[in-house]
Specification:
Helix content: 40-55%
Number of strands: 0
Low-confidence stretches: none
Largest sheet: none
Number of helices: 2
Strand content: under 5%
Radius of gyration: 19 Å
Mean pLDDT: 92
Order of helices and strands: HH
């Protein structure tokens, strides 16, 4: 949110009790899922050609 000009005043202390290794693994799984989804998507030009043709 920093890019939107929102600066946090602090953080939730519960974060200190989380296992960093498990967090990294969870983020990597999310990243892999996103990459796999993107790989199945058509390119922008293919999508436009298929769904936005001028009538």
């Amino acid at each position: 949110m920093l890019g939107q000009g929102v600066t946090p005043e602090g953080y939730d202390p519960i974060v200190d009790g989380l296992d960093e290794r498990k967090l990294v693994e969870a983020v990597e799984r999310m990243r892999l899922g996103i990459r796999q989804t993107i790989a199945q998507m058509p390119s922008q030009s293919d999508y436009i050609r298929a769904h936005c043709a001028a009538i």
